[in-house]
Design brief:
Elements (H helix, E strand, L loop, with lengths): L1 E8 L13 E5 L6 E5 L9 E7 L12 H13 L11 E5 L2 E4 L4 E4 L2 H4 L8 H13 L10 H12 L5 E5 L2 H19 L9 E5 L8 H5 L4 H4 L9 E4 L4 H8 L4 E6 L2 E2 L5 E2 L2 H14 L2 E5 L23 E4 L10 E5 L1 H4 L15 H14 L2 H22 L5 E7 L2 E6 L4 H9 L2 E2 L1 E3 L4 E4 L7 H14 L1 H10 L1
Helix pairs in contact: 3-11, 4-11, 8-9, 12-14
């Protein structure tokens, strides 16, 4: 017998789980009875840790998984709300562009926490900043001023079109704030006694979040249907259809247009300069606001700090999140002074947003990502990776297109991509899907090396035959 020690929540003192208060779950066998003891201090659980004795840690269990993995999957199915169809991997630690599971398996990470871990795992500068700030001040709420929040806002303004910043905790929260700001702006600027514009335009294949407002702007019907009625007044147009957008904006009922310069979840589709220019002109003429959602494509992912820089078109608001704090939760809405002037005390807020710990970490991430040499390297590696993929995969009949720029790349297939994802994972490479499940999405840490990209491309090539096997099995 060997001991599996899985800490589900660290104690305040960061002591090992076998010290102080803990939840001790004893396991007589992998499928045997469990006995649990929860110890509390002053009504609170200080730590929640799991000690599990299992046999042969790398052996295969009844699910075809290692024993340690099986234990965690069993517990997850009992204690967590089932909102995720997870891959059967229990990740334990990471270093650079590599992840390691509880069985000791190594993976090359081309998912980076869904485009979040821009600096990879365990970046030393990030860790140093986090430790220093955590030892000083973690959270005080937005009742008080803190320097890290002000400093981060100042740097974001200096590096963008914006004049002011609102902080949130995620991309969907940033988009919720932008929705409210757009509505308030229209009410604030309506001086003629007419009904203010309250409607929105979004586009096919878009993704703006899962809370009810952001969900109403998200194109996938299956995401919205279970929760209807969602926020009314949203019209979805074909991504890239400038004429249809112009005609609708000109009617004067559109508060704001939400658009991703490069769609991530939707399948790695990039806008054209003409499309974004047309939206900008139509919004200016009608008094609507143009909102760029750069939650996934911003902050260096394309090889530019902001994806919209490639087009020379600038928004009234821009929403950010994923990579801004390198893995800590943060969102942001960057706005012009014109928009900010419509927002008053109490119009919006957040308890956790803009905490000293997260903002100080984000400052470190932002400074590293925005270095010209860093961005140039992302662009170079992206071009190299796309060409490599075209050489290795382009001749396969299932590969319709390889698109994207920088390190946000999509491999468009004529069959579902999930068999290829599974095969790559079993071969030690983690990738994602996008679109309608037929696009392999590659969003590795921005620090990935050319050698690691070569390894990933070769593993993708080696596993392409599973698409034929799956297609034959379905016929």
């Amino acid at each position: 017998m060997s001991s599996v020690h899985i800490c589900l929540n660290n104690s305040i003192a960061q002591s090992p789980c076998n010290r102080g208060r803990f939840l001790n779950l004893e396991k007589e066998s992998i499928l045997g009875r469990r006995k649990s003891v929860i110890e509390f201090s002053r009504g609170r659980v200080l730590t929640a840790c799991l000690n599990v004795d299992v046999e042969a840690p790398n052996s295969v269990g009844k699910l075809g998984l290692g024993k340690k993995t099986e234990v965690v999957i069993e517990m997850e199915s009992k204690f967590l709300v089932g909102t995720y169809a997870r891959a059967p991997v229990v990740l334990e630690r990471g270093e650079g562009c590599k992840l390691y599971d509880v069985e000791g398996q190594e993976y090359l990470d081309l998912s980076s926490g869904i485009a979040v871990n821009a600096l990879g795992h365990g970046d030393p500068d990030m860790l140093k900043t986090m430790a220093e700030q955590a030892s000083n001040l973690i959270h005080v709420s937005n009742i008080y001023y803190t320097m890290p929040q002000v400093e981060l806002a100042k740097r974001l303004v200096a590096k963008s079109f914006a004049d002011r910043v609102f902080f949130a905790n995620s991309g969907t929260e940033a988009n919720e704030a932008a929705i409210k700001f757009a509505r308030k702006y229209q009410r604030h600027t309506n001086t003629e006694g007419k009904e203010p514009a309250t409607e929105f335009i979004a586009f096919s294949n878009c993704f703006h979040g899962r809370t009810l407002g952001a969900l109403a702007l998200t194109s996938k019907v299956q995401y919205r249907t279970p929760f209807e009625p969602v926020m009314p007044g949203v019209t979805f147009l074909e991504y890239g259809n400038a004429q249809a957008a112009k005609e609708l904006i000109q009617k004067g009922k559109i508060a704001a247009v939400f658009v991703e310069p490069v769609q991530g979840e939707g399948g790695i589709y990039a806008a054209t300069k003409e499309f974004l220019q047309s939206l900008r002109a139509a919004c200016d003429e009608a008094g609507a606001l143009l909102v760029f959602d750069e939650v996934q494509c911003g902050l260096g992912r394309t090889g530019l700090l902001w994806a919209h820089e490639a087009y020379g078109v600038f928004p009234d608001m821009m929403t950010l999140a994923k990579p801004l704090a390198g893995g800590l939760p943060i969102g942001a809405v960057l706005v012009t002074e014109r928009v900010a002037s419509a927002i008053n005390y109490g119009d919006h807020g957040s308890t956790f947003a803009g905490s000293p710990l997260v903002c100080k970490t984000a400052l470190t991430v932002l400074e590293k990502i925005s270095e010209p040499d860093f961005l140039a390297a992302v662009s170079k590696k992206g071009s190299y990776f796309r060409e490599l993929l075209k050489q290795k995969l382009g001749g396969n009949p299932h590969v319709r297109e390889i698109r994207g720029f920088g390190l946000i790349i999509g491999i468009d297939l004529d069959v579902p991509a999930s068999p290829l994802l599974d095969a790559c994972r079993n071969s030690g490479v983690l990738v994602l899907t996008a679109g309608k499940g037929n696009v392999v999405r590659l969003v590795p840490p921005l620090i990935i090396t050319e050698q690691e990209l070569e390894k990933a491309a070769e593993i993708l090539r080696q596993n392409l035959p599973v698409l034929d096997q799956d297609n034959n099995n379905s016929n």
